[in-house]
Each structure stands twice: as structure tokens, then as C-alpha cells.
Specification:
404 residues, Aspartate Aminotransferase, domain 1, Aspartate Aminotransferase, domain 2, 2 domains, 7-stranded mixed sheet, 4-stranded mixed sheet, 17 strands, globular
Length: 404
């Protein structure tokens, strides 16, 4: 293949708004768990579009479904019925145990919808002053104004204040703070069953119990943000099902479309009757192409594929814990479930990300010191072995003498 020389910095600085710090590489095709840059170099992709390319790249079933649907009909708007949306809502209801679905374009939009629906529930119930939310430190729920208001990191929040008022942050390490924060003016507690951007931190049983106590005491609603942890990322459709949470509302996104933008706000039978026409809306949400992609994703994720995901997960965590044992001088912890893994270092994880990329593996950093792995669900144990070998080499290259 002919080598192509492209000034990627010039491409961005010309007209693309500088809201991202991009790595100097351009990918022009993918196959399975690998991406290929414009020079033809292959990279093992353990970022998968930040958890989006759940079926890898150019998956045959998804490719056929998208092409077939695009040739028939892409969009008719939500002014009309279409059976794909109804079929997808039915299947998601069965998988989540929640009665109804509102479809949108992203996980952040799904969070926005859940926040609005929680307030609408209390407004309909006559408790118009019940508008507050309780969220957790290290949380990340998105960057639109409502979602940002429940996102903890001041780096995201400070330039855009004042945000939506009435949000209290409590520590997931101290459940008593939750008990103190939730009262009869709280509309909902919003929680990630596994904090992704916050450093791959699974919710503890003590916090789950504290949420249950607060709900029993005050009737507060629970929003589970499963944008990153849901859609089988952890081996079950929702990690709430493993953690013991009983949410009234669930936000979904990322993996659900296999790379095609889609989000969903799942709403319980208790909440749904409070929502009326005009309370929320979206032009593109739930379009035929997105619904067809999500249905194809659900079809591919049969029992055999979920079992394969779990085997790959077991193999991945075995290898990461071996790395932690070998490099205790730099590794603090290994966390995660399924194909959502985090390795916490004693120093900035950025050099490991770069060293891995130099060696043909794509991973990313979150919460400063955490290396996050989000491989596609089709990853094999052999792919995992390749990734683990590269991570070992990258850690040694980044920290040859231990953490500074």
C-alpha cells in the first residue's frame, strides 16, 4: 500500500472546532477488532469508539442490515409509527424489565430524558417542589446542561456555570452521605453502576444498600446510567442486574447501535403514565436506520456470543492481574467487569497510552491515572493475549524505573 502523508494538525485547525485533543492518526477502514490507518498499519482496537463499536468494525450482519435499510427508508420522523421502533422497544423492555422506551441519538440525550422524566413524574404527582437530584463524586453523565449538572468533575462544569440547580454530590466511599443528602425534595438519585470516565469504579454493595434505604424512606426515584456499563458490556444486559439496583429509569447508548448513533431512556410502568405528548422530543431519535442497527446488535448478541464475551473477560482480567503482580511498583489496582477494565497507576497513564499506540494497540486514559480498556464484544482470547503482551511492553517502556 502506498504511504500517504497527511498533516493531521492542519486538517483539524482549519475548520473543526478544537473541543478534542486528537492523536495524530487517521483511520480509513476497519475489520473485526482491528483498525487500519491511511498508511495501512493495523491497530488492535481496545477503545472501540469509546465503547461504541461493540461488534467490532465492518461486522457482516450489521453491514448488511445498514445497507438494506438505507436502500429502503432511513427516516420518517416521530410523527408516524414504524414497526422497527416498536420491535426494539419491546425487546429492550424484556431485557431491562422496564415498561417503555424513549429513543434518542446518544447516551447523554438519554440521561437528559431520564432527568426530565423524573421531574415530570413528581410534577404529575402534585409534588412540584420535588426537583433535586443526588449524584456521586467521580460521576460522568454527559456534557449537555442537564447531564453536565450531574457530572462531578469541575473541569467539565466550571466554564458553564450556573448549571441546573439542586444537585448534590455524595461520596460512593461513604454511604452515610447519601442517607443525609436524600430528602422529600429529591426527585431522583442518579448512579453509574460502574463509573467509566471516573476511573472504572464499580458501585459497592454498601452504596446499593444505601440507595435502597433512601428509596424506602423517601420514595425517591433511581436513575441508572448504563450508557457505558449496559448493553452486555459487563456480561449481563444491565450491570444493575448484577449490582442489585432496582432503577425506575435507565439510560442506554454507546454499544446499543454497534456504531450507529442511538440512545434510549427506559422508563418503568410507574413512571410512564406521567409522561404526556410534547413533554420531550427528538427529530432523529428512533429513526429506522438506528433501530435496525440496534435490532441487529441484539440478534448478534445471542447466548453463544455472550459466553464468548465472558471467556474473553476472564482471560483479560487474569492477564491484567498478573501485570499488577509483576509491576506492583507502578500498578495500584485492577478494576472492572466484563469487557470494561481499568488499570490504575501511581502516575499519569498517558505515557502508557502512547507507548501502546506506538506498538499497535489502542487504549485510552481516564481519570488521569487509569488505563481503560473497552474492546469489542467479538474479541477473542488470542486477541486478548496480543493486547496483554503489548500492555506489558508499554508499561515497561512508560515506567522503566517505576512511577516518578
Amino acid at each position: 500500500m502506498t504511504t500517504v502523508s497527511i498533516d493531521v494538525k492542519a486538517l483539524e485547525s482549519a475548520h473543526v472546532l478544537q473541543t478534542y485533543r486528537r492523536l495524530p492518526v487517521i483511520f480509513d477502514r476497519g475489520e473485526g477488532v482491528r483498525l487500519f490507518d491511511v498508511d495501512g498499519r493495523a491497530y488492535l482496537d481496545f477503545v472501540s469508539g469509546i465503547g461504541v463499536a461493540s461488534l467490532g468494525h465492518a461486522h457482516p450482519a450489521l453491514t448488511r442490515a445498514i445497507a438494506d435499510q438505507a436502500a429502503a427508508l432511513v427516516q420518517v420522523s416521530n410523527l408516524y409509527f414504524h414497526p422497527l421502533q416498536g420491535e426494539l422497544a419491546t425487546r429492550l423492555s424484556s431485557l431491562t424489565g422496564l415498561e417503555r422506551a424513549f429513543f434518542c441519538n446518544s447516551g447523554t440525550e438519554a440521561v437528559e430524558a431520564c432527568l426530565k422524566f423524573a421531574r415530570r413524574y413528581w410534577f404529575t404527582a402534585g409534588a412540584k417542589g420535588r426537583t433535586k437530584f443526588v449524584a456521586f463524586t467521580h460521576s460522568f453523565h454527559g456534557r449537555t446542561m442537564g447531564a453536565l449538572s450531574t457530572t462531578w468533575d469541575d473541569h467539565y462544569r466550571a466554564p458553564f456555570q450556573p448549571l441546573v440547580p439542586g444537585v448534590t454530590f455524595v461520596s460512593p466511599d461513604d454511604p452515610s452521605t447519601l442517607d443525609a443528602a436524600v430528602d422529600d425534595q429529591t426527585a431522583a438519585i442518579i448512579v453509574e453502576p460502574i463509573q467509566g470516565e471516573g476511573g472504572v469504579r464499580p458501585i459497592s454493595p454498601a452504596v446499593v444498600n444505601a440507595i435502597a434505604r433512601a428509596v424506602q424512606r423517601t420514595g425517591t426515584l433511581v436513575i441508572a446510567d448504563e450508557v457505558q456499563s449496559g448493553s452486555w458490556r459487563t456480561g449481563r444486559f444491565l450491570h444493575s442486574q448484577t449490582a442489585g439496583l432496582a432503577p425506575d429509569l435507565v439510560s442506554l447508548g454507546k454499544a446499543l447501535g454497534g456504531g450507529v448513533p442511538i440512545g434510549a431512556a427506559m422508563v418503568s410502568a410507574k413512571i410512564a403514565p406521567a409522561i404526556s405528548p410534547g413533554d420531550h422530543g427528538t427529530t432523529y431519535g428512533g429513526n429506522l436506520l438506528a433501530c435496525r442497527a440496534a435490532l441487529t446488535f441484539l440478534d448478534v448478541m445471542n447466548d453463544a456470543q455472550v459466553a464468548s464475551l465472558q471467556r474473553a473477560s476472564d482471560h483479560l482480567f487474569l492477564g491484567l492481574r498478573a501485570l499488577a503482580d509483576r509491576r506492583r511498583d507502578v500498578v495500584v489496582d485492577v478494576r472492572g467487569v466484563g469487557l470494561l477494565a481499568g488499570v490504575e497507576f501511581r502516575a499519569d497513564a498517558g505515557p502508557v497510552v502512547q507507548a501502546a499506540m506506538d506498538r499497535g494497540l489502542l487504549v485510552n486514559r481516564t481519570s488521569g491515572t487509569v488505563l481503560r480498556l473497552l474492546p469489542p464484544y467479538i474479541v477473542s482470547e488470542r486477541d486478548v493475549d496480543d493486547a496483554l503482551s503489548t500492555i506489558d511492553a508499554a508499561v515497561d517502556a512508560a515506567f522503566p524505573g517505576g512511577a516518578a
